Amino acid sequence: MDCVMEEIEAIGKDKKQQGFNYRGIDDVYNTLLPILAKHGIFTAPEVLEQTRTERVNAKGTVLFYTTVQMKYTFWCKDSSSVNCAVFGEAMDSEDKSTAKAMPIAHKYALPQTFSIPTEELIDQEMDVYTDIQEQKSV
C-alpha cells in the first residue's frame, strides 16, 4: 500500500457548492484508480449498516435520507489487505439515496486510507464555525 502513497499527489478541493470547496468523487477516482491498477490493488465494498428515513423539505417534497456504514477492503496482489470503515449519507426524492451514499463513503475511505492531501491549508468549516462563534460573542 505504501507504493500508492509514494505516487499519489494532492487532490485539491476545486469544486464549490453552497459556499464550500470540495473534491468530487470523480477527482478522487481519476487520480487514484490508475495508480491502484498499476499496483494490482482493488477495493471490495461491504455494507455493514443502512438506515433510511423520510424527511419533508420546505417545499413539501418527501426526501429519502440514507446513511450507510461501509467497510472497504483494499486487496493487494500478494493477498494482503487493509480494511477501512466509513459512513456515507445522501438524500434523494426517488430511489437513489443509497446509490448516492455508497460512493460518498468510498470517496472518504480512499483519502483516509491513502492519506491523500488536499493542498488546502485552512479548514473552511472551522472558519465558518469560528465566524459564527465570534458573532455570538459580540
Automatic annotation (TrEMBL):
Q: InterPro entries annotated for this entry?
A: ERF_bacteria_virus
Protein name, per record: Single-stranded DNA-binding protein
Record the organism: Entomomonas moraniae
